[in-house]
What does this fold into?
Amino acid sequence: VIIDKKGPASFLIRALEDASVRLEYGDLDDFVQACSDFDKAVSLGVVTQGDYPDLNAAVDDVTWRNVGDRRVFGRKLADIAMLEAVAWALWGASEYREIEPAAYFI
It folds into this structure.
């Protein structure tokens, strides 16, 4: 599981650690890259989305905010948690290829 130590889901870190879930930590630089990678993958047709209402809404409602000379998804105007999760997952899949996949049920 990839989680941003300062992100909105950071409150889950302790519970995930207590449940022995293997965590990989992302930071703002990683999130900037995740958003950029996801945007590029969508524009190139490398990834597509299924018909998931929460994800559809996030895609429809997402805004961008500047971080230096780059940009990230803005979450102040809408709940885009599903879109952030997908972007983190795509980033993690490329960043942590060498890690053996595992499934966790919480």
